[in-house]
Amino acid sequence: MYAQNYARTYRANSILTASPGQLVLLLFDAALNSLAIARKACDESVTDPRKLEVVHSQLVKAQKIIAELQGTLNLEAGGEFARTMYRLYDYYDRRLLEANLKKESAPIAEVERLLGEVRNAWSEMLRQQEGTAPQAALHHVA
């Protein structure tokens, strides 16, 4: 019980004290976590109603997070790169919708892999340039 309270407090504090760039990274991590849960549930059994509900709820959660990431893109300042990311997020959403309708894990795995690459690139950029213009140009993080 106490461990859960400490974990919840730690998560809340990490969000409240995170930089805008780190908040974007937390969104990537949350989406990837939901995708992993959905893929695992989908692989385990597509006939178990409880597993189907897990797949559905986790995919919807990931789609909402991806929509939030897409919504924070600064298309004016980010130029062609931000527009490309916008289209990529659209692609992720369509693939997850397909995965949810068909209850197939392949599209989930694809989005998980692609989003993981974007997440790792974002993380690397934060390590190299925390608080600089390239980060602010892509997402509304200032």
TrEMBL record:
**Pfam families named among the record's database cross-references:** FliS
Q: What is its main location?
A: cytoplasm
Per UniProt, subcellular location reads as: Cytoplasm, Cytosol
GO cellular-component term (any) = cytosol
Protein's GO biological process: bacterial-type flagellum assembly; bacterial-type flagellum-dependent cell motility
Task: Tell me which UniProt keywords the record has, alphabetically.
Answer: Bacterial flagellum biogenesis, Cell projection, Chaperone, Cilium, Cytoplasm, Flagellum
- What is stated as this protein's family in its record? Belongs to the FliS family.
Q: What is this protein called?
A: Flagellar secretion chaperone FliS
**Protein source organism:** Oleiharenicola lentus
Q: Which gene encodes it?
A: fliS
